[in-house]
Amino acid sequence: MKEQLSYIVFTDFDGTVTRTDIGDAMFTMFGNRKKCAEAFHDSLKGRIPAQESWRRSCETVESLSRSAFASFVAPQNIDPGFHGFAEYCAARSIPINILSDGFDVYIDQILRREELNYLHFYSNQLVFEPDGKISPRFPYTDAECIECANCKRNHLLTKSGDDQVIVYIGNGHSDQCPVRYADIVFAKAALLSHCERENITYHRFETFHDVLAKFRAIVEGERPRKRRTAELARKEIFMQG
Q1: pLDDT in tens, 61-106
Q2: For residues 11 and 5, what is the distance between their CA atoms, to the nearest angstrom?
Q3: Looking at the predicted structure, is the pLDDT value of residue 1 above 70?
Q4: Which among 205, 149, 151, 206 has a CA at the least distance from the CA of 177?
Q5: Share of the chain above pLDDT 70, in %
Q6: How high is the pLDDT of residue 241?
Q7: What is the Cα 22 distance to its own chain's centre?
Q8: CB 120 within 8 A of CB 99
Q9: How many CB atoms lie within 10 A of CB 76?
Q10: Please, which residues have CB within 8 angstroms of residue 29's CB and are 6 or more apart in sequence?
Q11: Mean pLDDT lowest for which of 41-50, 117-126, 151-160, 177-186?
Q12: What is the pTM of this model?
């Protein structure tokens, strides 16, 4: 007897759930934009781990209080269609997990403001030191990967089961690894070209209105099924131990 499949959703946060990349914007506002860009470029080229890129960026912030940071986060908007998407998934008991290579302090603030704090999220952490400096913490690193400080692939694999069809929604560099292991991919911006280069089937979107329209059609009109190449990639990781 074949297993009964259900859906589980993983989504990026910055530039996907939110309208802008808040992690980038915070260092543009409070840090040294040039030095931060250099650190990010070195990370993209594999010269330094992603964690080191975040550490260097945080070092450019001379002083930042929690209250000043909260004021910066307050006007940041989420995608206009995300509430509808979250409500649709909740009504059908489809879990949504937010995976971010950004920081917990602004994700938590925005989810609480939007009354979406029932959603689970996994991210890096930002600590406000007594001297006004900020320090990053990385609870979800992978020792074998230097590309992302928060290993989204590991969350994808450990938080889903064999009876679940994995849906991934993203837009940028930190989403390039996990889409290889997802059964259904929604992509925009830089992630589009990556999926095309790697021959990963995807659905293009601009807002979560687009995601909801397509996802509803899939859920209500098709039998849940896994993407064969993604399933094989997942099995390969587990076989490696």
Answers
A1: 999 999 999 999 999 999 999 999 999 999 999 999 999 999 999 9
A2: 20
A3: no
A4: 151
A5: 98
A6: 59
A7: 12
A8: no
A9: 17
A10: 72
A11: 41-50
A12: 0.95
The residue assigned the tokens 């781990």 is 49
Q: How far apart are CA 63 and CA 42, in angstroms?
A: 24
Which contacts (CB < 8 Å, 24+ apart) does range 87-96 have? 88/212, 88/215, 88/216, 89/9, 92/7, 92/219, 93/6, 94/6, 94/7, 94/8, 94/9, 94/219, 95/8, 95/9, 95/120, 96/9, 96/10, 96/11, 96/120
Contact 119, 111 (CB under 8 A): yes
Q: Which helix (H) or strand (E) holds 173?
A: none
| CA-wise closest residue to 150 among 4, 23, 9, 20 | 23
Q: 124: part of which helix (H) or strand (E)?
A: strand 120-128
pLDDT in tens, 140-155: 998 777 778 999 999 9
Which domains are assigned to the chain? 6-20+77-240 (3.40.50.1000)
The tokens for 161 are 């089961």
Nearest one of 128, 179, 141, 154 to 16, comparing CA atoms: 179
DSSP H helical ranges for the chain: 22-30, 33-44, 50-59, 66-73, 82-91, 104-113, 152-158, 190-197, 208-221, 228-240
Cα 185 to Cα 181: distance, rounded to the nearest angstrom: 10
SS3 121: strand
CA-CA distance, 157 to 151, in Å (whole number)?
Answer: 10
**What pLDDT, in 10s, does the model give residues 10-33?**
999 999 999 999 999 999 999 999
